[in-house]
Amino acid sequence: MAKYSSHTDNEIMQLVVERDSLAFSELYDRYNRMLVNYFYKMLWQDEEKAQDFMQDLFTKIVEKPKSFDIKRNFKTWMFSVANNMCKNEYRKQAVRKNTSYNLDESYQIKDTAMNAMDSLQDTQFSEKLTVELAKLDEKQKSTFVMRYFQHLSIKEIAETLECSEGTIKSRLFYTLKKLTVSLKDFAPQLVKMLLIMIGINS
């Protein structure tokens, strides 16, 4: 939608509140793939579920656009809604299966990671990292996914999860510390590469 290509997310969302369908289409085009990727990583690598959740989120936006606080950053608000949807799904699954959620072991991190990670081409490392990510608690996992896979800044993650930047940095630090220990059997440069790519200072 070239008409709104130069508009900020918040400007577009204000037009969505005013029931501008073209503005909604622009917003959808900007974020539908990002949301599918996020839900895919958070919800057991289930492509169909990821698509459904993305559609559900945009349905919430179009049905109740005024639920968005125009004073907030749209991107962080959107991820906070997505994160809450995932938490609700975890609770439903826990009730059904009386177990915590797990990552699908077939998940290949290199498919969606940065180009630097792609170039490593180390299947064993990817598989081991997948296993270790499955052991993270809900907060650690969501923080890690937002920072590493979605490339949100520390500030954006803090706003999304409604906590301080210091808490996010601390959470990432201890998560990385866990991963460094659990991945100690792999080439040190791989772990170092992971730490550099993730980063916690921006």
Short description:
This protein has 202 residues and is an all-alpha fold. The chain is built from 10 helices and no strands. It has 2 domains: 1-101, Rna Polymerase Sigma Factor, Chain: A; 106-202, Orthogonal Bundle (Arc Repressor Mutant, subunit A).
What does this 3D model show about the protein?
With 202 residues, this protein is mainly alpha-helical. The chain has two domains: 101 residues, Rna Polymerase Sigma Factor, Chain: A; 97 residues, Winged helix-like DNA-binding domain superfamily/Winged helix DNA-binding domain (Arc Repressor Mutant, subunit A), CATH 1.10.10. It has ten helices and no strands. Helix 1 crosses helix 2 and helix 8 packs across helix 9. About 11% of the residues have low confidence.
Which key features would you list for this structure?
202 residues; mainly alpha; Rna Polymerase Sigma Factor, Chain: A; Arc Repressor Mutant, subunit A
Give the radius of gyration.
18 Å
Rough shape? globular
CATH-defined superfamily of the largest domain? RNA polymerase sigma factor, region 2, helix turn helix motif
Order of helices and strands: HHHHHHHHHH
How far apart are the first and last residues' alpha carbons, in Å? 31 Å
**Total domains, how many?**
2
What is the CATH architecture descriptor of the largest domain?
Answer: Orthogonal Bundle
Whole-number average pLDDT? 77
Beta-strand level of the residues, as a percent range?
Answer: under 5%
Q: CATH topology of the largest domain, anyone?
A: Rna Polymerase Sigma Factor, Chain: A
Class by SSE composition: mainly alpha
Q: Treating each run of at least 4 consecutive H or I residues as one helix, how many helices?
A: 10
